[in-house]
């Protein structure tokens, strides 16, 4: 069995046909030498001929300097980005020379500006890249998914400042000791009355509270029942002091993580203002999201939305790649100032476009699938963002969602941290002095009247 295999002429860069090639042998018993009867005839060696690529721009897929000065199909030589690195691998596989041209596609609304597709339909371009999606119907072929990234809510996050209100919230379990204190006072009065002793509930409450806070002693026990009751109450008072001391130490040295939102519902119910660009905010047909987006504040670009989120304690939507940059750049003292919701609002899948009648479609798709499954595209995606940037963002995020310790090996509690108590005491002294002066003046007035 013989057939003709076309090849690309390295001079004319056109398909040429050479002499027939033996591909298989049939035997008398009906068998063949090779199982593959109809081999693929599309050439995969371009003999360094041009592989014409249209490059749109979108970080981190493709970045072209001075793109504002370019028109569709202008030749470009200075390109960097994730897609360009993948295309260099594919061009090497096809033994081709990359010839890159600029194509305009609005980055923040890819459904507009489709003029560049004419270049791929008429054969001027072999493929298009630059963070494109499967949104062009059957006008072109697609490479298959080579990277996916989430679109999610991003919100401002900051640890709560230390305040006495926060301290009170940390001591919310102290009511257990209050219950035991009241119970002790009632039981003491009952036991004393049963033994025929004169007892005052007010006096018992005062002594019980003094013992609980370590200020006074308990009343003198006269019977074994009272001694046993006092012993248990003192043990409970020790535990109360330990509990309060630990909470004070924690309050003065440890700051908990900020408020975090895991679901999209929690984000939209948070009461914060969302900053979204009007021309592109209705990108999904979700009724609840649409109602929420109707009341969002406007911004001119994704980056402007992110800046307003940081300035005004708000929310916005970002692509995963842009989020890493924003989180790393806005970190303060190695702690993130913006966090993301755990749930994605949308997951987008990026694919390259291929000319529909190109003989390289099947092999282009096969190569892309292998790169994706081997994790090479994921690695190149991270490198295009910046390995150090991603690492810094992940580190800042991890530091922010855990408790913050002001010291690593023991903390010294200084009087400055208890300054509020002294201010309160001074304020009380001033009030007492003012009342004392008023009492003196009122007495003098009464004496004069007499």
From TrEMBL:
- Specify where it is mainly localized: membrane
Q: Does the keyword Methyltransferase apply?
A: no
Tell me the membrane topology, using the record's own terms: Multi-pass membrane protein
Write out the GO cellular component annotations.
plasma membrane
Keywords associated with the record: Cell membrane, Glycoprotein, Membrane, Receptor, Transmembrane, Transmembrane helix
Q: Tell me the domain of life.
A: Eukaryota
- Name the residues that span the membrane: 174-194, 200-218, 230-252, 415-438
What is its subcellular localisation?
Answer: Cell membrane
Q: What is this protein called?
A: SFRICE005355.2
């Amino acid at each position: 069995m013989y057939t003709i295999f076309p090849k690309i002429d390295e001079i004319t860069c056109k398909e040429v046909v050479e002499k027939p090639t033996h591909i298989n042998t049939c035997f008398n018993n009906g068998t063949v030498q090779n199982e593959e009867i109809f081999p693929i005839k599309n050439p995969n060696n371009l003999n360094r001929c041009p592989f014409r690529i249209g490059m749109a721009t979108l970080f981190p897929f493709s970045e072209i300097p001075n793109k504002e000065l370019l028109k569709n199909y202008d030749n470009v030589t200075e390109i960097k980005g994730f897609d360009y690195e993948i295309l260099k691998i594919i061009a090497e596989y096809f033994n081709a020379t990359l010839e890159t041209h600029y194509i305009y596609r609005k980055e923040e609304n890819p459904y507009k500006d489709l003029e560049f597709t004419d270049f791929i339909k008429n054969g001027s371009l072999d493929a298009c890249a630059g963070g494109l999606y499967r949104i062009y119907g059957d006008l072109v072929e697609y490479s298959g998914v080579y990277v996916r990234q989430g679109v999610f809510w991003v919100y401002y996050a900051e640890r709560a400042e230390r305040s006495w209100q926060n301290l009170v919230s940390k001591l919310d379990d102290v009511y257990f000791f209050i219950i035991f204190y009241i119970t002790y006072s009632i039981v003491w009065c009952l036991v004393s009355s049963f033994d025929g002793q004169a007892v005052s509930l007010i006096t018992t409450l005062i002594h019980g509270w003094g013992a609980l806070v370590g200020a006074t002693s308990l009343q003198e026990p006269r019977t074994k029942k009272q001694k046993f009751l006092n012993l248990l109450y003192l043990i409970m008072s020790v535990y109360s002091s330990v509990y309060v001391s630990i909470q004070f130490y924690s309050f003065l040295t440890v700051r908990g993580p900020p408020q975090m939102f895991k679901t999209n519902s929690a984000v939209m119910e948070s009461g914060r203002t969302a900053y979204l660009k009007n021309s592109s905010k209705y990108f999904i047909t979700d009724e609840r999201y649409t109602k929420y987006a109707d009341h969002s504040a406007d911004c001119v670009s994704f980056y402007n939305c992110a800046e307003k989120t940081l300035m005004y304690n708000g929310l916005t939507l970002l692509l995963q790649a842009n989020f890493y940059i924003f989180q790393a750049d806005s970190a303060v003292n190695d702690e993130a100032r913006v966090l993301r919701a755990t749930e994605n609002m949308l997951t987008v899948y990026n694919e390259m476009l291929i000319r529909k009648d190109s003989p390289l479609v099947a092999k282009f798709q096969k190569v892309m699938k292998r790169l994706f499954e081997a994790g090479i595209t994921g690695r190149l995606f991270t490198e295009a963002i910046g390995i150090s940037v991603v690492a810094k963002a992940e580190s800042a995020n991890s530091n922010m969602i855990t408790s913050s310790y002001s010291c690593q090996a023991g903390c010294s509690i200084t009087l400055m941290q208890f300054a509020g108590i002294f201010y309160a005491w001074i304020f009380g002294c001033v009030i007492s002095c003012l009342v004392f002066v008023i009492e003196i003046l009122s007495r003098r007035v009464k004496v004069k009247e007499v």
